[in-house]
Design a protein that fits this description.
Helix 2 packs across helix 9. With 269 residues, the chain is of the alpha/beta class. It is globular, with a radius of gyration of 24 Å.
Length: 269
């Protein structure tokens, strides 16, 4: 009789232990989300600690909901296409991409988060050929360079109306080469991204030739975008936005921004 009772208790103990294990592991289970990106320091980079500002914010916001992030860094066009299709090379699943400006065209394929980071888009020019302007009409006849995969609402409208000339090229190196060789009059770029590039990729003599205007072209708001190929991404988006709000209300968001402040200081003007 005692043996029968002990066996019964042992079975119950094993059953309860199994249930407890399942419950405990379901609570701490970590989901994974795969995101594409490109080189865009100081906000995004595979070469910098934790991917830098935007990637760190996204990772910590998702982590608050037990979601682990993995980043794949590609040329921007490929990064966009992998995220739009939801699949990349070797059928790797990609849930979305960061960090992008929301446009009607992109909204056909993606759900967009609240802004991750915000920055000014301004004009960079040569000190020997300064551009003083307050309104778009002041730029009449100016040739402005931009990057191929960026959108420039005000400049594109001005170019369409033949007020300015807008020339797009593939990368920052070509943009600044064209500026330094006076093939274009100005470069339209996100302020701190351009300053970072000038600091780390141009010679001191070239950097000293360049200045910029604080007059605002656009206030850029960069977001996480998740592919509509996966309905579950709507839940991920909700969880991310919740995590982002928590980071901001707790003060952690400001801490992340502040730790990169030295990289965002202007070396020009």
């Amino acid at each position: 009789m005692i043996n029968k009772l002990s066996k019964c208790y042992r079975r119950k103990f094993r059953l309860l232990a199994g249930i407890a294990w399942l419950v405990s592991h379901s609570v701490i289970a970590v989901e994974n989300i795969n995101l594409t990106s490109g080189e865009w320091p100081p906000y995004l980079s595979a070469k910098l600690s934790k991917g830098d500002i935007a990637a760190q914010i996204v990772s910590e916001a998702f982590a608050l909901n037990n979601i682990s992030t993995y980043y794949g860094y590609y040329p921007w066009k490929r990064s966009y296409e992998y995220a739009r299709r939801g699949l990349g090379a070797a059928n790797v699943q990609w849930h979305g991409s960061l960090a992008w400006v929301k446009t009607p065209q992109r909204e056909q394929h993606f759900w967009f988060s609240d802004p991750i980071v915000s920055d000014k888009e301004v004009l960079f020019f040569l000190k020997s050929r300064p551009i003083h302007w307050q309104k778009i009409e002041d730029l009449q006849g100016v040739t402005i360079g931009g990057t191929m995969f960026s959108v420039y609402p005000s400049l594109e409208k001005a170019a369409k109306n033949q007020l300015i000339v807008l020339e797009k090229v593939g990368d920052y190196q070509r943009l600044f080469e064209r500026l330094l060789h006076k093939r274009i009059d100005a470069v339209a770029l996100t302020k701190h991204v351009a300053l970072h590039y000038i600091n780390y990729h141009l010679s001191n003599s070239d950097a000293q030739q360049i200045s910029y205007s604080e007059t605002l072209l656009e206030q850029r708001k960069f977001r996480l975008m998740l592919s509509k190929q996966y309905p579950n991404n709507q839940r991920y988006l909700k969880q991310f936005n919740q995590g982002l709000r928590t980071l901001k209300s707790s003060g952690r968001y400001s801490e992340i921004i502040d730790q990169f402040t030295p990289r965002l200081l202007s070396p020009l003007n």
